[in-house]
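does this look right to u?? adenosine-5'-triphosphate version
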Amino acid sequence: MTQFRIALLPGDGIGPDVVAEAVKVLRAVEARLDGVQFTMTEYSVGVAEYLRSGDALPKATVDLIRQDDVILLGAMGLPNVRYPNGQELTPQIDIREILDLYCGLRPVKLYHPDDTPLRKAGTIDFAVIRENCEGLFASRLEPYSLDADEIVDKLRITRRGAERVCRSAFEIARKRRRKVTLVDKANVLPSMTYLRHIFYQVAAQYPDVAADHVYVDACTLYFVQRPESFDVLVTENMFGDILSDLAAAVVGGMGMAPSGDIGDKYAVFQPSHGSAPDIAGKGIANPVATILSAAMMLEWLDTSETLRGAQLIYSAVERVFADPAHRTPDMGGSLTTGEMGDLIAAAV
Ligand code: ATP
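got this back:
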C-alpha cells in the first residue's frame, strides 16, 4: 500500500465548503486505485487562526505541513479582518514565498461550449504560468505610512527567478502542444526587457518548443479574440494574477479555475479564486476549481496510479459537464456545492 499524506488547509469563506467536496472526490478516486491510500490531515490556517492565536500562518504549522507529501488549500483572507496597518491577511501568498513555490500553474480549459461568454469560441485549453515569488509583489511586505508623500512598489526580476519559471514553462509545454508565449511590457519597463532577454536565453535550450512574446495589454485582447491560439503563457506575478482571472472568465468563471503553486520540493494546490465572502455560508460555491486542483495534485505526485486518479477526475468532470443542467448558480445552474461534489464523485 502506498500512502500519500495530504495536508488540508481549508481556510476561510468558501474554502472549507469547496475543500470538503474535493475530499469527497479524492475518497472516490482512492477506492478506484490499486494500493493507494490518502491520509489527509487538516490544519488551521487563515483568518480564524489569526483571530484565535494572532498568527494566520503559525510557523509550527508550516513545519508540520512540510512533512506531508503535498498540500491542498481552499481559500484565505477576508476583507473585514485586517492587520493593524490596514492590510488584508494573505497567508495564501505568504506560504508561496515561505515554501519557495515559484511556478504558479493555472490551466484554463473550456469543458462545454455553453460555458464561455465568447460568441465564437473553439477549443480553449491553455495554461497561464505566473511567477509567484518576486515581480510586482516584491515589496508587498515593506513597511509604509499613509502619511508619506509617495509610496513606490518595486517590480523585481532576478536572473534566477526568471530562469527557473521560464524553464518550468518550457518543461510543461513539452507535455502539451509545445508552444510558450512570454507576456511582458518590454516596450516600457526595463525589468520586462530583462525578463524577455532571459526568456529567449532559456528558449534557446528548448529548440523543440516554439517561443514567442506578447505585450500584456494585447494579451487581454487576444484572450477574448483568439484564446485557442495559446498553449503555455509565462509572466510576472501581478500580470499573472490579473490575466488568470480574465482567463477564468472565458471558461465559465472563477469556479472553473484550478491552480498549482509548485516549487522544487513542495507544492500547494488550490482554486485560483479567493474566499468569496459574498457567497460564503450559502452552500452555492462552485467546487469544481478545487476538485480540478486535486486532480493537478495527483498529477504532481506523479506515480502511475495517481496519474490514473487524475484522469479519473478529469473525465468525471467532462461527463458531468456534458449535461448543461449540471451547473452551480455562478454558471447559471441551481446545483448546490454538495450536489456538484456528489455528481463528480459518483462519475469517478
Ligand atoms: P482574491 O484576491 O483572494 O483572489 P478576490 O477578491 O479576487 O479574491 P474572489 O474571492 O475570487 O475575489 O471572488 C471574486 C468573485 O467571484 C466573487 O463575486 C465571488 O463570489 C465569485 N467566486 C469566486 N469563487 C467562486 C466559486 N468557487 N463559486 C462561485 N463564485 C465564486
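The longest helix spans residues 15-32. idk if thats expected tbh
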